[in-house]
């Protein structure tokens, strides 16, 4: 009996036990990844987390295998995974010419492990914040950045209100 109790306590991490909502769970994962980077270039961590989670809700709806589309100029981007990352900028589908900034296969962004999606997203954002207008391929990278951090519905919200239920 004692062994069973110990097993239950050890085998049950915070996320599984308390059933965090997808919103709060993603906030935690992003927060941990940003902390791990120890990188001040991203600015206010909570603000970035809120912008990203708000964007995810509006686009993939927290679906890690979502595939979307967006017309950008004369081309059509295919968008992969929970963060809807572009086949022209972030990853490669093997056929479409892509900057492939994260050196990833687009289908790798569709599995349920989003830690690589998060690393790729943060790297891309940090690159642009650091290099600004000097970032290579500004037009495409800037468009991806704008889509993620400047959703009309997400600009005005207060991070502390947005995450109020997350504790
Ligand atoms: C997701 O977006 C919808 C529509 O804008 C909104 O009603 C809902 O509160 C949002 N949910 C989260 C978790 O942000
Ligand atoms: C997630 O997206 C995939 C691909 O578009 C779709 O097949 C699947 O039904 C979606 N899952 C949910 C829970 O909406």
TrEMBL record:
Record's signal peptide: 1-15
Organism: Pleuronectes platessa
Enzyme class label: hydrolase
Keyword set, alphabetical order: Antimicrobial, Bacteriolytic enzyme, Disulfide bond, Signal
Segments crossing the lipid bilayer: none
InterPro entries recorded: Glyco_hydro_22, Glyco_hydro_22_CS, Lysozyme-like_dom_sf
Gene Ontology terms, MF aspect: lysozyme activity
GO biological process: defense response to bacterium; killing of cells of another organism
Name of the featured protein: lysozyme
Keyword Calcium in annotation: no
A Pfam family that the UniProt record links to this protein: Lys
PANTHER family per the UniProt record, alphabetical: LYSOZYME C
Residues annotated as domain Glycosyl hydrolases family 22 (GH22): 102-120
Enzyme Commission (EC) number: 3.2.1.17
Keyword Disulfide bond in annotation: yes
Coiled coil: none
